[in-house]
Design brief:
With 600 residues, the chain is of the alpha/beta class. It folds into 3 domains: 185 residues, Thiamin diphosphate (ThDP)-binding fold, Pyr/PP domains (Rossmann fold); 162 residues, Rossmann fold (3-Layer(aba) Sandwich); 207 residues, Thiamin diphosphate (ThDP)-binding fold, Pyr/PP domains (Rossmann fold). It is 36% helix and 14% strand. The strands form 3 sheets. A 6-stranded parallel β-sheet has the order 2-1-3-4-6-5, sandwiched between helices. Strands 9-8-7-10-11-12 form a 6-stranded parallel β-sheet, sandwiched between helices. The chain has a 6-stranded parallel β-sheet with strand order 14-13-15-16-18-17. β13, α17 and β14 form a beta-alpha-beta unit. α1 crosses α2, α1 runs parallel beside α7 and α3 packs across α18. The longest helix has 15 residues. The protein starts with 23 loop residues before the first helix and ends with a helix. The N terminus is likely disordered.
Length: 600
C-alpha cells in the first residue's frame, strides 16, 4: 500500500502544472489514491462525468484507474472481488437515476457481507432540482438517497462544496469501521466540477482506517482459561477470521483441536489438514456436525462467523447454538446470532489468538502432538471429513456429474487458482465437493482470504461473474475460475467482456443443465409445483467464440481431462467452458429445503 501523501501534496494533472486539483472530483480520487486503491469500477453517464474525467487523469499518472463495467451492479460486484483479493477499499460509481438504482443489488450484497465499499453516485445540478431534469433522482424526483438508506453504513448527500472532504473522510472511515460495509455519497454534477481552493486537507486518512490491535482483556482472560481447561474443543471458523487464520491454526495444532469452517470460511483451512472435519451449514458435511455433537465436546469456539442460517446449520441448537459456545468476533453485530453463548470475546482476532499462543508458551502448556507427528499427518494427501456421495465424486458417468467435475478441477488448474462460486447449485456443489489443493497447515499468511469464495447471505445471482473480474484485477496473472450456472450467466454474463477488454485470465465454467437447477431440485424436495425452472439449451461455447473467446463444450470426463487448463490459466483473456452436467444429479441442498418446509 502506498504511503499517505504529505499534507498539501496531491497528484498533479497530466500537464504537471500546479498543485491544486482541477475539480472537486480530483479531490475524491486523491483520497482514494492515499489508500492505495488501484481500480475504481462503474458505468459512465453525463452527471458522473467529472469523476470519470478525474479518474482518466489519475490513470495517466499512476493513480487509480477507471474500469468501465457493463452494468452498475456488476461494478459493485467487481469492487467486492477486488477488495476480497487485495484487502483494499472497494470503490464503485454510477450516474444519476437508473444508473444509481441499477447498483442497488450489488451494494446490498456488500452490505450483507460486510464489504468496506465507497459508493459514489451522481445527481443532476442543484439548480435543476424539482424541475423534472432528465434522470433526476433528488428528494423531488426518484429519491435515490432514501433507497440506499437501509443498505449502507453511511449515506449522505453533498449539498455544498465545503462538505465534500469531510463527508468523504467520514464515509471512508465508516466503511472500514466494524461492522464494515458500504458508505454512499451522492453528489450533484455542479459540485463535482467546482474548482477547489486548497489541496487535500487530510494527510493521514490511511492511518484513520487501520484497525488497532485491541481486545477485551477481561473476556480474553476468561476465554484463555476455558480453552486451557477444556477436555475437547472444536473451532468453527468464519471468513472474518481470514487475517488471523495462520495463528488460529497454530493454536489448533498446539491443543489438537478439530476444525470446522462455515460456508463463507471455506478455503481458509487446507482440505488435507488432519484436524479438518469439513463445512458446517449449507451444503456442508455430516462429519462437521458429528464433530460438534460429540458428547465429549465441552467447548465450541466460533471465530469470525456471523452464525446466520447458512453458518449455524439452520440455527442448530444441538451442534452450535448452545451453552458450550464461545463466540470470538471483531464486531458486536456478529453476536446478534449468539445471545445464548457462555462467553463473547470482542477484539482484533489476530491479537486474540496471538495472545493465546503467547500464553500457552509462557505457561509451559505442552503441545498435544509433537512436530514429527504433525509433519507425518500433514504429508497424507487425504480427507478427514465425509462426502455425501463418494461414488459420484469418482464416477466416470456421462453426462458428467457435478461431483466428479468438482473433484477434478484442483487437479487441472494451478495450485494458485482462485475459485468463486455463484448463487444457486454452483455454490452448493462447490461448497461440498470442491477442495482446492492448499496444503498449508499453519503459519502466518496474508489477510486476503483463501482460494475459495462465495457470497451466500444475500446470494445474488451473477455475483461471481463480475466478482471474478475484480479478483483478477487484484491478482495480476493469477488464474480465476468462476463457477456459475446457465441461469446466472444469462442474467449477468455480459461482464465477460470486461475480462476480454482487459485481457484477464478468468475461466467461466458454466454448469449447463438447461434450467434453474436449485429451483428445480428445491421444488422436488419441498413438494412444490414443478414450474418455471426450464431454460433453453444454450451453446455458451458458441456465444464465447462469437466474441473471440475460446469456448469448449464439456460433456464427459474424457472431455474434461482433455482440456489444456494450463494454457487457459496463462492466456491473456477469458475462456468459457460450457459443461453439460447431468441435470438429474441431486445437489446437497437438504438443509435449505428442510428450512423451507418449516422443519427447522
Amino acid at each position: 500500500m502506498e504511503k499517505a501523501m504529505p499534507e498539501g501534496k496531491i497528484p498533479h494533472d497530466e500537464s504537471g502544472a500546479g498543485t491544486l486539483p482541477r475539480e472537486l472530483a480530483d479531490i475524491v480520487v486523491g483520497y482514494i489514491r492515499q489508500l492505495g486503491v488501484e481500480y475504481v469500477f462503474g458505468v459512465l453517464g453525463g452527471a458522473i462525468e467529472p469523476l470519470v474525467n478525474a479518474l482518466a487523469r489519475s490513470g495517466r499518472n499512476g493513480g487509480p484507474r477507471c474500469v468501465i463495467t457493463r452494468h452498475e451492479s456488476g461494478a459493485a460486484f467487481m469492487a467486492d472481488g477486488y477488495y476480497s483479493a487485495s484487502g483494499k477499499l472497494a470503490v464503485c460509481f454510477a450516474t444519476t437515476g437508473p444508473g444509481t438504482t441499477n447498483m442497488v443489488t450489488g451494494v446490498a450484497s456488500a452490505y450483507a457481507n460486510n464489504v468496506p465499499m465507497l459508493v459514489i453516485t451522481a445527481q443532476t445540478s442543484l439548480d435543476t432540482f424539482g424541475r423534472g431534469a432528465l434522470q433526476e433522482s433528488s428528494c423531488t424526483g426518484t429519491n435515490t438517497l432514501s433507497i440506499f438508506e437501509s443498505i449502507t453504513r453511511y449515506n449522505s448527500f453533498v449539498s455544498h462544496p465545503d462538505q465534500l472532504e469531510y463527508k468523504l473522510a467520514a464515509a471512508i472511515m465508516t466503511a472500514h469501521r466494524y461492522p464494515r460495509g458500504p458508505a454512499h455519497l451522492t453528489i450533484p454534477i455542479d459540485i463535482l466540477k467546482v474548482a477547489p481552493k486548497k489541496p487535500l486537507q487530510f494527510a493521514n486518512l490511511e492511518h484513520l482506517v487501520s484497525h488497532t490491535k485491541w481486545l477485551d482483556t477481561v473476556a480474553f482472560q476468561q476465554f484463555f482459561e476455558l480453552l486451557r481447561s477444556s477436555k475437547r474443543a472444536v473451532f468453527v471458523i468464519g471468513n472474518e477470521a481470514s487475517g488471523a487464520i495462520g495463528t488460529i491454526l497454530d493454536v489448533a495444532l498446539w491443543l489438537n483441536i478439530p476444525l470446522v469452517v462455515t460456508p463463507h470460511g471455506k478455503g481458509l483451512v487446507s482440505p488435507f489438514h488432519h484436524l479438518f472435519r469439513g463445512v458446517l451449514g449449507f451444503a456442508g458435511h455430516d462429519s462437521a456436525v458429528t464433530a460438534l455433537r460429540d458428547p465429549e465436546v465441552d467447548l465450541v469456539v466460533a471465530i469470525g462467523a456471523s452464525l446466520g442460517e447458512w453458518a449455524s446449520n439452520g440455527w442448530d441448537r444441538d451442534s452450535i447454538l448452545n451453552g458450550r459456545l464461545v463466540h470470538v468476533a471483531s464486531s458486536e453485530n456478529q453476536f446478534n446470532g449468539s445471545p445464548m453463548a457462555r462467553l463473547h470475546v470482542r477484539g482484533n482476532i489476530d491479537t486474540i489468538f496471538d495472545g493465546v499462543r503467547e500464553r500457552l508458551a509462557a505457561d509451559g502448556v505442552p503441545r498435544r502432538l509433537n512436530e514429527e507427528t504433525i509433519r507425518a499427518l500433514s504429508a497424507q494427501r487425504r480427507f478427514h471429513f465425509s462426502l455425501q456421495d463418494e461414488a459420484a465424486y469418482h464416477s466416470d458417468q456421462a453426462p458428467l456429474l457435478p461431483q466428479r467435475l468438482m473433484a477434478e478441477l484442483p487437479n487441472l488448474f494451478p495450485p494458485s487458482t482462485r475459485y468463486l462460486a455463484d448463487s444457486g447449485n454452483s455454490f452448493a456443489w462447490a461448497v461440498h465437493y470442491l477442495h482446492p489443493q492448499d496444503r498449508r497447515i499453519a503459519g502466518k499468511r496474508d489477510a486476503k482470504g483463501g482460494l475459495f469464495k462465495a457470497s451466500l447471505d444475500f446470494a445474488s445471482m451473477g455475483w461471481a461473474i463480475a466478482s471474478a473480474v475484480g479478483t483478477a484485477f487484484a491478482l495480476p496473472g493469477c488464474p480465476v475460475v468462476c463457477l456459475t450456472g446457465d441461469g446466472s450467466y444469462l442474467m449477468a454474463g455480459q461482464e465477460i467482456t470486461v475480462a476480454i477488454q482487459h485481457e484477464l485470465p478468468v475461466i467461466y465454467l458454466i454448469l449447463n443443465d438447461a434450467g434453474y437447477g436449485m429451483v428445480k431440485h428445491g421444488q422436488r424436495l419441498t413438494g412444490a409445483e414443478n414450474f418455471g425452472y426450464e431454460l433453453p439449451r444454450i451453446d455458451f461455447a458458441a456465444m464465447a467464440q462469437a466474441m473471440g473467446v475460446p469456448g469448449h463444450v464439456v460433456e464427459t470426463v474424457d472431455d474434461l481431462l482433455a482440456l489444456d487448463c494450463d494454457a487457459m490459466a496463462n492466456r491473456k483473456g477469458p475462456t468459457v467452458l460450457d459443461v453439460r452436467i447431468d441435470p438429474e444429479a441431486k445437489p446437497p441442498i437438504g438443509l435449505r429445503t428442510r428450512i423451507l418446509r418449516g422443519e427447522l
